[in-house]
Amino acid sequence: MTWIAITGGAGGIGQALVRLVQAAGWKAASIDLETAPGADLSIVADVADQAGMAKAFARIGPLHGLVCIAGTNASGRVELLSWDDWRHVMAVNVTGCMLAMKHAQLSNGGAIVLTASVSAHIATDGYVAYHTSKGAVLGLARAACGEFAPLGIRVNAVSPGWVDTPFTDRSVATAPDPEALRASAARAHLLGRIARPDEVAEAMLFLLSNDASFITGEELVVDGGFMRKR
Amino acid sequence: MRVALITGAAGDIGTATAKVFAGAGYALALLDRSNSTVPVGATGLSLNCDLSEPAAVADAFKHVAAHYGKLDALINIAGINHRAGVRQMVLADWNRMLDINVGAMFLTAKHGLPLLQLGESPTIVNMASISGHVASADYPAYVTTKAAVESLTWALAGEVADRGIRVNAIAPGWVAAGFTRAALEISTEPAALQEAARRAHVLGRMAESHEVARAILWLASPKASFVTGETLFVDGGLMRVH
């Protein structure tokens, strides 16, 4: 049986990926703060907690793939953001990936997919920790592709733009005018809309698959032309 | 007189940068956990500061505020390195890399911005690296932090642009300096590594510290008045070699 571990498997993109992984004939193990109802195995753990991650991956066992989606956000400009909030975002978004990669029992021919973001390339006022963390994720993917290559394991990143998920809903809800923000988010993409979670998950599934056998150390941007729009 | 605060001022690039800035007429505030050898003169400031300690960073900036009352350039050079693959990584070492190489830049910006607002043509320059762009299997923590430095730089540039503060990053390739010496010391084949480092650059050699320092000086100067949110590569063409 081929297993794929997904951190953040209970989130919007995570649930979409669980379904796609299962449709591909594989088993999906979720590691998330919440239970992932559809997953074949759902472990409740904090990706930033090393002991919890070690235990989770020991329980999951041998893997074909690891997809790190779990992430968090904190709003605040540099001057207002607290050191604790900064460290929390870095711990979940960056260290969480490192710990998953460290403890996952991946086999030869396997693949790792990290979730970066267009936020690694462009900046939105007031989310400095999120931007920094997503740049770090790209660095981690680039660094680790060399370490894992001799083991026959590819390492890549997927960078979404805006995605229609509860994560986005929570962010939007804090805006002074959520509906206006939603409309401007849609316009910010060449395709005139934000992504469905399954559109991001499809890119992850591709990078996990043998169709991507010569792709490593790369970033696949799934942003509906967000970065090409001015 | 323009005032520059330079972190990591006791290291090779920090030392070279402090000298170049002093030569350009800047008054200096030097920060390092070790003593910098660069003379700051009777009116300058040289402080010992552990940048991994948020309270120590806050204290250092209180000193700078009391001493100069403003800042024109914040130059973040301080950084550390750690050799360990992802699978061998010790979490405490990883956290220390994130805190010093990126977290300290967040903290110095946080405490430095009120002083920069009082400066003239105020600017921040952060030390990134080509390591943020290329794979380096033995140094994932370094590569991760250096990519993060660029994203921090871009985000910060947007946050402070309306106050006339420019924020840029500088990305050297191999520099004939402390990190390179350390890497050579722990290498099993130092001669081969040195040769590979030399050949990695189109220019066929590593950079000297002062070449990086001069690029920082230019970025920090009003001559770069329309440059913000950018990364200046000082890599002798390393990124273009394959």
Describe, in plain words, how this protein is organized in 3D.
- The complex is a heterodimer of chains A (230) and B (242).
- Chain A is an alpha/beta fold.
- A 7-stranded parallel sheet of chain A has the order 3-2-1-4-5-6-7, with helices on both faces.
- Chain A has helices at residues 12-23, 50-60, 83-103, 128-148, 166-173, 178-187, 197-208; strands at 3-7, 27-32, 41-44, 62-68, 105-115, 154-160, 219-222.
- Chain A has a single domain (3-162, 196-224), classed as NAD(P)-binding Rossmann-like Domain (Rossmann fold), CATH 3.40.50.720.
- Chain B has a single domain, classed as NAD(P)-binding Rossmann-like Domain (Rossmann fold, 3-Layer(aba) Sandwich), CATH 3.40.50.720.
- Chain B has a 7-stranded parallel sheet with strand order 3-2-1-4-5-6-7, sandwiched between helices.
- The longest helix of chain B has 26 residues, at 91-116.
- At the A-B interface, helix 3 and helix 4 of A face helix 3 and helix 4 of B.
Explain the layout of strands and helices.
The complex is a heterodimer of chains A (230) and B (242).
Chain A: E1 3-7, H1 12-23, E2 27-32, E3 41-44, H2 50-60, E4 62-68, H3 83-103, E5 105-115, H4 128-148, E6 154-160, H5 166-173, H6 178-187, H7 197-208, E7 219-222
Parallel strand pairs in A: 1-2, 1-4, 2-3, 4-5, 5-6, 6-7
Chain B: E1 3-7, H1 12-23, E2 27-32, E3 45-48, H2 54-68, E4 73-76, H3 91-116, E5 123-127, H4 140-160, E6 166-172, H5 178-186, H6 190-199, H7 209-220, E7 231-234
Parallel strand pairs in B: 1-2, 1-4, 2-3, 4-5, 5-6, 6-7
Helix content of chain A: 40-55%
The termini of chain A sit apart by 46 Å
Could you report the average pLDDT of chain B, rounded to the nearest whole number? Answer: 94
- Which structural class do you get from the secondary structure elements of chain A? alpha/beta
- CATH homologous superfamily classification of chain A: NAD(P)-binding Rossmann-like Domain
Instruction: Give the ordered list of helices and strands of chain B.
Output: EHEEHEHEHEHHHE
Weakly predicted, low-confidence segments of chain A: none
End-to-end separation of chain B:
45 Å
Largest sheet of chain B: 7 strands, parallel
Structural class of chain B: alpha/beta
Q: What is the CATH first-level class name of chain A? A: Alpha Beta
The top-level CATH class of chain B is Alpha Beta
Instruction: Return the CATH topology of chain A.
Output: Rossmann fold
How many strands of chain A? Answer: 7
Shape of chain A: globular
Determine the most extensive contact between two protein chains: A-B, 45 and 46 residues
* Rg of chain A computed from alpha carbons, rounded to a whole number of angstroms: 17 Å
| Order of H and E elements of chain A | EHEEHEHEHEHHHE
Please count the beta strands of chain B (DSSP E, at least 2 residues each): 7
